[in-house]
Specification:
Blueprint: E1 2-8, E2 13-21, E3 27-36, H1 38-42, H2 49-71, E4 80-86, H3 90-107, E5 111-115, H4 116-122, E6 135-140, E7 145-152, E8 155-160, H5 167-177, H6 185-200, H7 205-211, H8 216-219, H9 239-256, H10 262-287, E9 292-296, H11 303-316, E10 319-321, H12 332-345
Parallel strand pairs: 1-4, 4-5, 6-9, 9-10
Antiparallel strand pairs: 1-2, 2-3, 6-7, 7-8
The structure holds 5'-O-[(R)-(carboxyoxy)(hydroxy)phosphoryl]adenosine and zinc ion.
């Protein structure tokens, strides 16, 4: 059995996990502890980088020993250390990078540098039935909306991305205007569900989502919102257009005193965001005839997106892989999972290891 200790501190979650690889190659999560700073940042309506760095520093040591204890492992049982080095908030990233570096050097364990977005994709390898290569991946998070053609553990090609805001940010910012607290994603998801079901009179949210364009509310030009799927033949997105249009629409609602149903608005907004992702994923399958799709990242917890992409895969006869919601948000297990590929295919790094904010 090989055990990898994974560290993550790129944004507002300090996370440490021990993941084991059994003789048959399957990964199992032995421990996965997360110290979320959401309650602290909620007061400010978003992540305050300085506060995030300080909170990571306070949490990381105790969290590491908790992860080891829950895994029934001592430092001597750890075969490799994996840490997210990029992308993210530089001050936040540096906390886990420095801690992981000290841990690895003091116990003489090989250390690996991990890309946060690849770690999200690797979370699919924590499923009881993991995907086989090649596959298509879509990463949807607070900072990214990207499509990848993944041919092998070492061949990731980014084939589409957002040119501005990420889908998670688009949910968080408009959620805030609707009175939802940061991070608004989960509450937005629930509000939209109410909107889809009420507008269509259909109790099943997935059916309600499909029927939504037939409703009078969807057809009302006053509530029109643009699609974030760019029409230029690329596989790219632009969520800032959708976000700005929603802000303007909320202003117009304010000015005209139009009767306004928050749940229907959340449904309309979600419909555009999700449909754009489905449309570009379908186009990606036309360009790369890969047999499977991996959906991952914090926004992969969104029930409407999970439902719509699962339906697309059913129609296109593709396998669909999505981690459980608990492994969609930032966590250490996904970093350890990507660590197994690094352990096998990449060279360990030394004390020169640094973090970087950029992709
Ligand atoms: O991957 P993640 O934990 O952090 C980044 O790498 O950014 O993603 C966080 C994002 C936030 O924008 C949050 O609002 C969003 O994931 N999120 C959701 C849901 N749960 C979390 N967005 C939509 N629906 C959800 N159920
Ligand atoms: Zn993330």
């Amino acid at each position: 059995m090989i055990r990898i200790l994974g560290f993550e501190s790129s944004c507002d979650e300090t996370a440490v996990s021990v993941v084991a690889q059994e003789e048959n190659g399957k990964l199992s999560v032995l421990s996965n502890v997360v110290a979320s700073q959401v309650e602290t940042h909620k007061l400010y309506g978003g992540v305050v980088p300085e506060i995030a760095s300080r909170a990571h520093t306070e949490a990381i040591s105790a969290l590491t020993y908790q992860a080891l204890e829950e895994a029934g492992a001592s430092p001597a049982d750890i075969d490799a250390v994996a840490v997210t080095t990029h992308p993210g908030l530089i001050g936040a990233l540096l906390v886990a990078v420095n801690f992981a570096k000290s841990f690895a050097l003091s116990y003489n364990i090989p250390l690996y540098s991990i890309d946060h977005m690849r770690a999200h994709i690797a979370s699919a390898f924590l499923l009881p039935e993991p995907p086989a290569f090649p596959f298509m991946a879509i990463t949807v998070s607070g900072g990214h909306t990207s499509l990848y053609a993944v041919s092998s553990p070492t061949d990731y090609k980014q084939i589409g991305a957002t040119r501005d805001d990420a889908v998670g940010e688009a949910f968080d910012k408009i959620g805030r205007l609707l009175g939802l607290f940061y991070p608004a994603g989960a509450a937005f998801d629930a509000l939209a569900k109410e909107g889809f079901c009420q507008a269509t009179g259909e109790a099943d949210p997935q059916k309600a989502f499909s029927l939504f364009p037939k409703t009078d509310f969807y057809k009302d030009p006053f509530f029109h919102l643009p699609s974030p799927a760019l029409q230029d033949g690329s596989l790219d997105f632009s969520f800032s257009g959708l976000k700005t249009a929603a802000v303007n629409l909320l202003h117009r609602i304010d000015q005209t005193g139009k009767v306004f149903d928050k749940a229907a608005f959340a449904a309309r907004y979600t419909y555009e965001a999700v449909s754009a992702i489905v449309k570009k994923t379908e186009a990606a399958f036309a360009a790369y005839d890969f047999p499977a799709l991996v959906l991952c990242g914090g926004v992969a917890a969104n029930s409407h997106l999970r439902g719509a992409l699962s339906l697309l895969c059913q129609k296109k006869k593709k396998q669909f892989f999505v981690p459980p919601p608990s492994l969609c948000g930032d966590n250490g297990a996904m970093v350890a999972a990507e660590g197994f590929f690094a352990y096998r295919y990449a060279a360990p790094v030394g004390s020169e290891l640094n973090a970087s904010a950029a992709d």
